[in-house]
Amino acid sequence: MSLILDILVRRGSFDLSVDTEFASKGVTAVFGPSGCGKTTLLRSIAGLENSIQGKIHFRGRAFHEGLAGIPPHTRDLAFVFQEPALFPHLSVEGNITFGFERVREKTPLIGVSEAAELTGVTSYLKRSTNQLSGGEKQRVAIAQALASNPALLLMDEPLSGLDASSRSSLLTMLESVFQKVDIPVVYVTHDWKEVLRLADHVVFLQSGRIASRGDIPNILQQVDLPIPEEQSGVTLIEAKVSSVDEEFALSQFSFPGGQLTVPGVDRSTGDTARILIESQDVSIALTASEDSSILNILPATVKSVAITESNKARVTLDIGSTILRAQVTRKSVKKLGLSPGLSVFAQIKSVALFP
């Protein structure tokens, strides 16, 4: 049974109106600009909003019905805030244990040591939280949430207040946690790359309303997604290892549009991964070059061409059943005669590989 919402929340001149059903498994990202209602939505699910009308049901249990809801502490969920909510008088271990003690009678699946190992805080369990960096504090907050063994995990932009290095490290950690832990997650973010790396499903929220929603593999085939222009130039491909070249330390990944050669041999045949391709790492040619250092050259069809700046254009390519985005100059569009339906070759210069 999934999470079902049909609610109206009014805050002054702003109102959040959502009627939807979240998936019962995996990570559902709620994506949208600041002020669109993402945090209000999470707070409503958690029972932290007072002006809710409608219903919130989770696995057949009513969290909210009409104008009344059950108390937050009875909802069997955990909430990871943007700013870590830790107890300053407790050690790292003490904070994680606090989460665990709340559910000892449940025969929890995740204990204190496992939560610490999953989040990478084992080496500083005895330290005071006052001695931790922002990234370390957020790891402890996530460990505390996991140790409470919630039926549902809510996360409100947990990476947004961190520096680039900490964000990258925690993003990798969250990928690993979500793969290992069978807890449905609702993850709020305004960073599209976080959605691509972490989410199984996505809900687009705009001005308090759902603009679009769907499973990640399917929704990425849409050309007109409500994504800010500066974040729209990333392609995600879900692929499977088809072969490994030990001599040159390369792996071949198969996907519906063909094959991609990726550096590294740390995966086995049959393993799956997400491949992210930046639009500026894709060039376009009318013929397939045979004397190029670029290993990934794939036949494609131009789907659309859009001018994005005075000298740039975004070209959407169809490779099999996969959408690939490229950024080229307006001069290249004219020189190559790029227009919908034209057969071309996509030259992929660089890719990023994630679990």
What can you see in these coordinates?
- This protein has helices spanning 38-46, 92-101, 112-119, 134-147, 164-180, 192-198, 216-219, 330-336; strands at 3-11, 14-22, 27-31, 52-58, 61-66, 68-69, 77-80, 152-156, 185-189, 201-206, 209-215, 234-245, 250-255, 258-263, 272-278, 282-285, 296-307, 312-319, 322-329, 343-348, 352-354.
- The protein has 355 residues and is of the alpha+beta class.
- It has 2 domains: 3-230, P-loop containing nucleotide triphosphate hydrolases (Rossmann fold); 234-352, RNA polymerase II/Efflux pump adaptor protein, barrel-sandwich hybrid domain (OB fold (Dihydrolipoamide Acetyltransferase, E2P)).
- A 6-stranded mixed sheet has the order 7-8-9-3-10-11, sandwiched between helices.
- A hairpin with a 1-residue loop joins β5 (61-66) and β6.
- α2 (92-101) runs parallel beside α4.
- It is globular.
- The chain starts with a strand and ends with a strand.
- The model has no long low-confidence stretch (mean pLDDT 91).
Residue ranges: pLDDT <50 for 5 or more in a row? none
The total strand number stands at 21
What is the helix fraction of residues, given as a range? 10-25%
State the strand order across the main sheet.
7-8-9-3-10-11
CATH class of the largest domain: Alpha Beta
Strand content: 35-45%
Q: Terminal Cα separation, in Å?
A: 28 Å
